[in-house]
Amino acid sequence: MSKVRVLAGTRKGAFVLEADGKRKDWKVNGPFFAGWEIYHMKGSPADPNRIFASQSTGWFGQLLQRSDDGGKTWEPVGNKFVYEGATGTHQWYDGTPHPWEFKRVWHLEPSLADPDTVYAGVEDAAIFRTTDGGKSWQEMPGLRRHSTGNKWQPGAGGMCLHTIILDPKNPERIYTAISAAGAFRTDDGGGSWKPITKGLYSPFMPDPTAEIGHCIHHMAIHPSRPDVLFMQKHWNVLRSDNAGDEWRDISGNLPGDQAVYPDKEGNTRAFDLKGFGFVIDVHAHEPQTVFVVPIKSDSQHFPPDGKLRVYRSKTGGDEWEPLSNGLPQRDCYVNVLRDAMGVDSLDSCGVYFGTTGGQVYASPDAGETWSPIVRDLPAVLSVEVQTLP
Amino acid sequence: MIRVVLPAHLRTLARVSGEVRLEVAGPVTQRSILDALERQYPVLCGAIRDHVSQQRRPFVRFFACCEDFSHESPDAPLPEAVAEGREPFLIVGAIAGGAR
User: Fold this and answer.
1) Residue A260: which H helix or E strand, with range?
2) How far apart are the C-alpha atoms of A321 and A310, rounded to whole Å?
3) Residue of chain A nearest B6, judged by CA positions
4) B63 forms bridges with which residues in the sheet?
5) Is omega for the bond preceding A180 within 30 degrees of 0, making it cis?
6) What distance lies between CA A162 and its chain's CA centroid?
7) pLDDT: is A87 or A246 the higher one?
8) Which value does ipTM take for this structure?
9) Domain B2-93's class?
10) Mind telling me how many Å the CA of B95 is from chain A's nearest CA?
11) pLDDT category, B99, cuts 50, 70, 90?
């Protein structure tokens, strides 16, 4: 029978949650690296027992861990992340130039084909790659050296490169997203990058349609249609049908808020904005079925009305339905962070997400019903899912 | 033989318990101790000082003989008691409140 392995990175350690294909009885393994922040863990599609984990603290910096036995044992690998050549500056919060400084690894994206190759998205924003299983890391400097790089500014959580998507049909194409610089795509294996933000509208920016500066929270694709991108942005949800060249809002009937910003003429007005959130993911078998978790924006960061609800669109956006069966519907004030949702690829697609309250919820039926795998972990920073034979 | 006390997280990382003992050639300074420590336990590279700049990480402190040497030059000689192994060189994770 197939098995599912859920990798949960938390504020105070890593946990490996395992169940058989029924997904009813779960074994909770961990904490690994107790006391350290685990921003992300991800397994290699080419060798699922090889898992990488980003381990850091403010005291002792960044470590990278690798397991070759499915998370039972771990060995530290290389942790030297040095920007290539002159680092230059980006903009600080106050608009002054600030030198690029490595802080931590936010996201690890193992190659689809080679278990020794992994991409790492880091703060301050850059993309690194290892081709020796994590022993050494080299920056792919074309992204940081983009002509707009000196204008990038950090979001509230830091200037993090948090999303890396490898195109399963075109190994030369990679998508990345940076808070709060925007989204970028390379079509030459990382040599050169272009912003992919046409159609994004961010009323909190001086020019709401500028090429850079959009606060993108996460992006997702379905592997069968890598040109179709879904984006959870600060304030709304969008979709592109041409690899990010153009985007359109698909927030539809998602819950929203009013926010007061200057309009195009410089007059202050209230905008009705729908669909603030951090996570977004796509059903394993239905490329048009998308999941998000709306939260109140943009400082409250908890579910509307204290009700934790996943919203699902079966139409690729615009029309959304709340899914709440098994989720707390009163007094719930947790957040679901950008990398904290995943899906399995069993016949009935499982959906999983973790909360800042320490719960990891699972749905074995594509969101119809939910139950907690575990309720009292440290704040969950990331959730990744592996489907095993 | 130099005696070094690591903070708990770094003992776990280096897979040691208790004090670490190091052979240090030449003058006993912060730098020579850390060089020897990182040679013996490469996993600690980057955890105490920056890989490239060699700057002490902000929340790490160096104590010995009831004194704080964190702000001294990394090349300044440490007390004889440390050099002779009578007193340990303490690498300490600074107290940083309860924000996390």
Assistant:
1) strand A256-262
2) 8
3) A60
4) B68, B90
5) yes
6) 6
7) A246
8) 0.93
9) alpha beta
10) 10
11) low
Domains of chain A, CATH where assigned: 3-388 (2.130.10.10)
Instruction: Kindly report, residue by residue over A169-201, the tens digit of the pLDDT.
Output: 999 999 999 999 999 999 999 999 999 999 999
Residue pair A141/A83 in contact (Cβ under 8 Å)? The answer is yes
| CA-based nearest residue in chain A for residue B9 | A35
How far is A100 from A265, CA to CA, in rounded Å?
Answer: 35
Provide the mean pLDDT of chain B. Answer: 94
Q: Say if residues A202 and A247 touch (Cβ distance below 8 Å).
A: no
Q: Quick check: A58 and B59 CB within 8 A?
A: yes
User: Is it true that the peptide bond before A31 is cis, omega within 30 degrees of 0?
Assistant: yes
The answer to whether residues A63 and A55 touch, using CB atoms and an 8 Å cutoff, is yes
Contact flag B43-A76 (C-beta cutoff 8 Å): yes
CB of B92 less than 8 A from some CB of A: no
**Nearest residue to A52 (alpha-carbon basis) of A161, A154, A173, A133:** A133
Pair of tokens at residue A215: 């606060």
What pLDDT band is residue A298 in, cutting at 50, 70 and 90? confident
Among A37, A60, A82, beta carbon nearest to B47: A60
Pairwise CB contact (< 8 Å): A60 & B100: no
Q: Quick check: A258 pLDDT over 90?
A: no
User: Rounded mean pLDDT of A337-366?
Assistant: 98
Q: Is residue A106 exposed (0-12), middle (13-18) or buried (19+ Cβ within 10 Å)? A: buried
Q: Are A302 and A296 in contact (CB under 8 A)?
A: yes
For A182, counting Cβ atoms within 10 Å of its Cβ (0-12 exposed, 13-18 middle, 19+ buried), the class is buried
Q: Which residues of B touch A82 (CB under 8 A)?
A: 51-52
Q: In this predicted model, what pLDDT tens digit does every residue of B32-68 receive, in sequence order?
A: 999 999 999 999 999 999 999 999 999 999 999 999 9
Phi/psi at B9 (5° precision) = -60, -35
Percent of chain A clearing pLDDT 90 (strictly above): 90
Contact B9 A61 (CB under 8 A): no
pLDDT one-digit tens code per residue, B10-19: 999 999 999 9
Contact with chain A for residue B59, Cβ under 8 A: yes
Spatial distance between the Cα atoms of A18 and A25, rounded to a whole number of angstroms: 8
Mean pLDDT of A357-381: 98
**B93:A59 CB<8 A:** yes
Domain ranges within chain B, ordered by starting residue: 2-93
